[in-house]
Amino acid sequence: MHAFLVAEDFTLSTSRFTRRYLGGTMQGEVPLDRLIIDIGAEADMVRKAMEQDYKNKQPKDEILDLNTSGDGDKPEGPTGSGDGDGKPAMPQFLTTVNEGALLSWSGLPPRLGRVSSRFFGDGLFRHPDDGDVLAMQLQALKARHPGRKHFHLAVVNAFGTNLGDTMLGMTALRYIAKYLKQHLDSFVIDLLLGANAGVANFDIAGHDDWVGDQHLIGPSILDFGRYDAYFDFSGLIALPRITEMAISDWYLWWCGLDPAAVPAPDKRNIMHHQWPIWQEVTRILQGIKGKKIFFNPKASVPLRTFADDHVPKFLKRLLKVAPDVTIIIDREIKLDHPRLVNLSKEINSATKFAALVAHMDGMISVDSFALHAADCANVPSVGLFASIDPYAYPYYPHHKGILIPDGETLPAYKRFKTNTDEEWNEIKDVYTEAWSRLDAEEVYKLLQERMAARGSAPGHNGTRMVFGQHQKARYRQTGHGRFLPYENTPDVWTRAQQRLIEISRNLIRPRSRVIMVTPGQSMLPVAIAQHLEHSGHLDIFEPREARRRLIDMDILDKAANGVHVEYHDTIPGKVEQAGFPGEDVLAETNPAIWGRMNRKKGVKPVSIDSMDLQVLNSLILTAPAHWKLALESAMGTLERLKTPVLIGPLSVLQDVRDIATMLMPIKYQCWVEQLEPGKSETTILLAVGDQVKVQGLKRVQFS
What we know:
The protein has about 700 residues and is an alpha/beta fold. About 30% of the residues lie in helices and about 20% in strands.
């Protein structure tokens, strides 16, 4: 993993997103909110766009030396020093910060897997020869957060951007999710797919119930601190041992498991098909007679693609040796035949492509995504490989791989792609010649064997129907109203809410006005709104947006009796500005605290005195309200109206003393009730005018 920082403010607009990047330097204090984690080559997109923008702004007769552009490993720029020949050098627009340097920030979460951090001291720690290291890391993770029940995890640069990689990565991650359930009470995994991930990547990865959010662009380092831990697949095809084992095993190994201990059925794939797309493909194939064999000569890179010049010849021979089949293709090929059906106009998306594969009786393909999709639907297949080991997918009982003639001796054997177009141009002729010698009859015999064995091979339910995208719920229904999905509500908080309801019902008159500050959950405000009845007025100060919305929904459901509710996205106070940690709704939350995110939300407080209220029947402050700020902003109103003040839960008795001292000069007395006598100092406080008698609570007195 690494992050990047732009040298100056810049806006990037693509067909998928628009983003404003704020510039800075790496000198002095590191701007954590401007350092962006690079996922899916986002940094490269930004750099190229900045270079083009710079070039467009130069005089037309100016010559730029594009070969001098920075690669992010030099000190940050721009410098524009030139090369000594009178040509201006391209400024360096990006500074790259590697993972080792990022670890200097204490807020960076620990890394899980074959390379880890935070668990064994400073820096990155490698576990190349250990079997199952993930269990040890998960135990250490729980020890870092005693009492936590839910964990928010991330996968950085999730599985690369090829569709086949995403499918295999999700197959591995499904088993890892099973494994996590053995060690963690609850978890959600966000997938940072990346800026060059297609829509189909999101669809392939987005339907399991433990998947949280999927991200197209990288978070800032500051925002990345929301996660409790992460896996990292940055630089996928250059990572250790990726060519030494089956790719499905490699994903498991890289995440810290022993792949040999994972049952083979758990290495089979699952494909979620959109039901309307499935029905459309079914209609497209109606009327095509005989066994349907899909032939796909096109891979994602030239190295693994069937040489165009020899595709018609191969197909012609295939049609001759397979007289009882219809061959389906999804691209233009220079061959006409009554049993060759071209669906290139109909199959125009990855989702339709996957559905087409699932409808076939057999398949011959160079494309690995098609092979993985065939495995999901138990479709017999033969994989034609130019550079990948033909035994790369050993867990597919319906698949057989074949290498092009003399493939082991060709220059790019066991490579996924060539590094440059120039490198491919140098070797493509030898690959073209090898494809010309591929025997169609041999390939078809292998497919016939797979088709004949289809009934006896292990079954697999890897085809699932879905309607639309999976969206992780942002709240859950409870008997006390809508809660954030992973709310870990302390028992003392719940008891405090119940006691505040009981006390407030004796204080509040129907059809009066009440101010409530940071209620957090809806149990208390719903009860107050119901009690106020028609024409009552409830002001709710709750700057935590998700909580405010849930409270609003519950009041609408349960207290729609004509009470007027006014929401304030701030806190009471006389200061110019206040801030508090943001709240991540997919992480574990607690209504008694603001949040755990490193990025703070700023608000402009509102003085209660400035509201110029003529009636205020009660002021209720619940944790984590800044009770001092709130009371300071209401002193004039309290002195004038003698409004009862109800505060709780207060965790320390010193707060009780400070509040009583603050209110005594305006002729208030304070009464308290301990919620956990003999166990803690947690207290509810009621402040009323000094002429009011209170029963059932203990009066605060100073000796």
